Please model this.
Amino acid sequence: MSPGQASAEPLLRVDNVSKYYAFGKGVLVARRLGQIKAVDGISFSIRPGETVGLVGESGCGKTTTSRLILNLETPTAGEVRLEGQPIHNLKGEALTAFRGKVQAVFQDPWSSLNPRMTVGRTIAESLIVAGWERPRIAARVAELLDQVRLEAAHAQLYPHEFSGGQRQRIALAAALASRPGLIVLDEPISALDVSIRAQMMNLLKDIQTHDNVAYLLVAHDLATVRHMADQTVVMYLGKVVEHAPTQTLFDDVRHPYTQALFSAVLLARPGQLKEEVVLTGEIPSPLSPPSGCRFHTRCPLAMPRCANAEPPLREVSPGHRVACHLYEIGGDSAVSAAGARSVATGG
Amino acid sequence: MSNENVLEVRDLVTYFFLRRGVVKAVDGVSFDLKRGEVLGLVGESGCGKSLTALSIMRLLPKGGARTLRGAVRLGGENILTRSPRQMREIRGRRISMILQDPQTSLNPVFSVGEQLREAIFRRTRGSKAEVMREAVEALRRVEIAAPDQRIGQFPHQMSGGMKQRVVGAIAVCGQPEVLIADEPTTALDVTIQLQYLKLLKRLQAETGMAILFITHDFGVVARMCDRVAVMYAGRIVECGPVVQIFEHPSHPYTQALIASVPRMSGTVGGRLATIDGQPPSLLDLPAGCRFAARCAHVQARCRDTYPPTVTVAGEHTADCWRLGAQ
Amino acid sequence: MPWLSILVIASMLCMAILAPLLAPHSPIDQTLRDKLLPPFWFEGGTSKYILGTDAFGRDILSRLIYGARVSLIVAGLALTVGGGLGLLIGILAGYRGGIVETILMRLVDAAFTFPAILFALLLAVTMGQGLGTLVIAISLLLWAPFARIIRGEVLALKQRDFVALAKVRGCSEVRIMLTHILPNVLNTFMVLVTLNIGVVIIAEAALSFLGAGIPPPTPTWGLMVSEGRGRIAEAWWVSLIPGLAITALVLSVNLFGDWLRDRLDPRLRQQ
Model:
């Protein structure tokens, strides 16, 4: 599970994927007024058994990305492949097979369980769809409940009898039922109480060790991602701005936006407060993203060219990719990369 | 910082009387808020921190919530015994409040300017032009760009962060002595959250008001607060200066809570310390220490009798039998 | 528990089922000698006809008892057909969205603007009077409000994560509609049904009153009100007694519906 397994074949590959939503007005004939580029040409891949963290603020496209990977949305351009197979043209049995391989746990434990369905039935859902026989289903449900540290008798109960933390574990058991290779975890702990979060994070790690399942962890909290993820992808307004193995990223933050996010992480010790990068202004609307680098309107280090040219994602060290004009090696940038970093961290 | 207490809460008890029984949401809470300080009130959902704030404001939700005992002294006078009319005079001028969700704090059918002007007029009774001038100034103080234009806008035309600034502007326009901020940044994005905390700090420095900052997030406490009170199942279990609490947490609950938060330093990964079990039901609280069932250091007497409040060092106190023995 | 409303509803059900056993007289046999007798506790009343007689000397109590039969059968059928259709369309429109929703909901809008009574009269002329006509006419009145409310509910449900998760788990659209959407709107449906029993009985009464319902002499409550209206000044009981029965049933059913709505909410049930 360490990022050192670079040679392993990716389980899932997101290849230059974009998703635009058209929006319009009109009663009978909708006039197209424009489009929201929710996700705009992103690429990354997930290896078997690893955790990829996807970080960003509202409107950055992280939820759209997870919905694209779950095949709940179809991309406008680009391709998502699972085990080499494009997922968005699957039909019939192939689609059912895909559903068994990629599962999800969502943020809100109060909304992710059907209140009219027993816990056992909810957990068994993917198995029922896959046509398992009753005794096998019952055995598997009991096994899953045990795995998420609930009791077999809980299968008969309805969701309203459980606390938020327990519900989230039920949702996890339901996701695990079909033994998926990948689970999309969309903010799985942010709705839980502080004292319950650590239990959930440990449980997720234990299950990963036990089942060798890969996670795509969508989160806004860097500390959680740092704790859980092997690779971290940082998104801003539909674009990947920085992507690196987690340890590398947290040792050597490059993109000014990531630096700002780091500053915003409210450190757990009062004495640790360092020089901070406080962004000014609001997050621009994805409806009319800024020209050039989308971050330039809030960037403390913006240069004239940032408003015009969009920086490509380039590798600054092995496995560490950044989309920023500050890091053009051998480029015509007046500011050297090292100099920029010392400015950005206030050193 | 002066040592004078602007707000003193003593043995505050607020229960919900429901058909199923009595929910002991606030069960004997005492603390002081000094002039010009930020006191963090930290706890998980359902620990009674928000209801403590509402009890102080005397804005308890309808339907069975009642403050039974205790005193809330604002500048020496007990406001629990004031008439509803006097209370209306106190709210907004001497104590204000910011709530978590800016969406519901503003009225969607009035422009932000109208809502702000109403709050200002209630205090100054000034002329239209004066109130308008002051409203624009109030928006400028909360760092809203182009306040002359923004003042005519409606809440739905603003982002969450901007709405929360307007809520802040309304809350501080009466120059209150005490501001109660109940999870004001929880609904905001992280970079916007940081901006807002900085703004609150600045407003506090300018006006010298004291802030009771309610949150579940120790990170926010580390950044914002001078002192912190940790609440669990209706009681304050530990209270003290922020650095003291973070470096030498004394109550097992605080210790476990701080240990369970992932770090931003050191090597990545590893396992987190956890607190097993759930907080007790407020309908059926144990006789002794409320944390006993989840505590790693539990002793027999913890289950029988509620522990005394022990002074750990200086202003640092905690409710734990283990400390008394030392 | 709304004991009183349950009592009223249950006794009316019993009346309908056990009509031949309970009715003291035939509901259609005319005894012109005994016409327009008031209820027994009034001057001129007799204990032979407890609630009096109508213009043809028929026993009002017996007609009331038999009338409950027709009224309840019509209500049951119309609610099953009209309500069921509304439920189906509401779920389909709400869940599928897009062009399906646009078409179905425009149909609903059209149904709302449609003069249902006029249509019922037209139906009576072309198909003839009878139970079938009545049920079809009332169903056409009912389905649109059902569809509109159920669709609103489905739209809210569709936003809940468990619906997206059901898709992730591999459920087909039909399966999602049946196992995830339907059980969660059944509450609303049941409440709509109880609240609409009143509408149906009043509609049946109105249509019978206008002559588009069950043909006489078969008694229905609406028909009874209609028959008495000409002599309301001298023989008020002929209209008033079935009118009171309608009021009592509609009120009881509404109270029961309110109670049921609270009762069926699992969160409220806890407390």
About this structure: The interface with chain B takes residues 57-58, 163, 165, 193-195, 197-199, 201-202, 205, 220-224, 226-227, 246-247, 250, 260-273, 276, 278-280, 282-283 of chain A (CB under 8 Å). Confidence is low (pLDDT under 50) at residues 1-7, 331-347 of chain A.
